[in-house]
TrEMBL record:
Swiss-Prot/TrEMBL keywords: Cytoplasm, Protein biosynthesis
Residue ranges of every copy of the Ribosome recycling factor domain listed in the record: 23-185
Molecular function, one GO term: ribosomal large subunit binding
Superkingdom of the organism of origin: Bacteria
Primary role: Responsible for the release of ribosomes from messenger RNA at the termination of protein biosynthesis. May increase the efficiency of translation by recycling ribosomes from one round of translation to another.
PANTHER family: MITOCHONDRIAL RIBOSOME RECYCLING FACTOR PSEUDO 1, RIBOSOME RECYCLING FACTOR
Lineage of the organism: Bacteria, Pseudomonadati, Pseudomonadota, Alphaproteobacteria, Rhodobacterales
Keyword Ribosomal protein: no
InterPro entries per the UniProt record, alphabetical: Ribosome_recyc_fac, Ribosome_recyc_fac_dom, RRF_sf
Name of the protein described by the UniProt record: Ribosome-recycling factor
Length: 187
């Protein structure tokens, strides 16, 4: 068994990439003072008896830098969409115009920018934790193989491969956080 052990590093990388994808989605939902259709992605609307993403009940557009519009397809859902946006915690006050809901994006004040920077930091820390959990899984597999007779050289090789991958993804998280915080603080 000792010579046959091959750690599935592709699986570990795929799982770490999943943590990065989740982080990118969370960062996209953070408001930076500029309009973005992705800021509405986390908003769910109660439609047809179940919670539905907002982009499945209407068209989300960004007609100008400080305005997002949602053109709701079903007139009976307009009020529910408006209520979901109002209660989403995005700090946006929707304005109705028939089936179109306009969302003017207000300027962020300094205090709100700092809060958003902290939230971005929390998202990044969650991603780091997820990446470290994947690393731990890989290390556990190596320890199990060591107990089954893997050589110490092989153990060191696989441990360094897992650590290298972990370091690469942690650096990606740090870089993404730095970029997002700079974007948030930009006036």
């Amino acid at each position: 068994m000792s010579d046959d052990f091959i750690l599935d590093t592709d699986d570990l990388e795929r799982r770490m990439e999943g943590a990065m994808a989740s982080l990118r989605t969370e960062f996209a939902s953070l408001r930076t003072g500029r309009a973005s259709a992705s800021m509405l992605e986390p908003v769910q609307v109660e439609a047809y008896g179940q919670m539905t993403p907002i982009n499945q009940v209407g068209t989300v557009n960004v007609p100008e830098p400080r305005m997002v519009t949602v053109n709701v397809w079903d007139k009976s859902l307009v009020n529910k969409v408006e209520k979901a946006i109002r209660e989403s915690g995005l700090g946006i006050n929707p304005q109705m115009n028939g089936t179109i809901i306009m969302l003017p994006i207000p300027e962020l004040n300094e205090e709100r920018r700092r809060e958003l920077g902290k939230v971005a930091g929390q998202y990044a820390e969650s991603a780091r934790v997820a990446i470290r959990n994947v690393r731990r899984d890989g290390m556990d597999q190596i320890k199990k193989a060591k107990a089954d007779g893997m050589s110490e050289d092989d153990q060191k090789f696989w441990e360094s491969a897992v650590q290298e991958t972990t370091d690469k993804f942690i650096a990606m998280v740090d870089e993404a956080l730095e970029h997002k915080q700079a974007e948030i603080m930009q006036v």
